[in-house]
Amino acid sequence: MSLMIRKIAHIGVAVKSLDAAIPYYRDVLGLELVGIEEVADQKIRAAVFSVGDSTIEVIESTSPDGPVGKFVEKNGEGIHHLCFDVADTARALAEAREKGARLIDETPRDGVHGMKIGFLHPKSTFGVLTEFAQEGEGHN
Ligand code: CO
After folding, report:
1. Please, what are the domains in the chain?
2. Distance from first CA to last CA of the chain, Å, rounded?
């Protein structure tokens, strides 16, 4: 069995301020800003930049007690997570658990762009918070 990973969907980068970070990605690197979305559930706002077939999600916490707020408090700004595109997030999570990975999400939840997402715990992935994402209906 395989988890059906198809590509790197995005890399999540945690920043203190989207307003401060957007000019770097847009103007210095020259990446296309696809959009900005708020995910209330995760207490974040994310600016999504297109990089070929993948994206970079630049993430700002909307609350100091959110997961990204706590991450920045502890680690400072920097790479936050790695997201793999999968055909079926529910199945990928179940298979990862069967193979011994520790899950943060037992079942998929809603991410930006209507994606179904789920996270593996970094303690079982050699320190990298790992996300699976299944594209939402009508996306791309
Ligand atoms: Co993500």
Report:
1. 11-134 (3.10.180.10)
2. 27
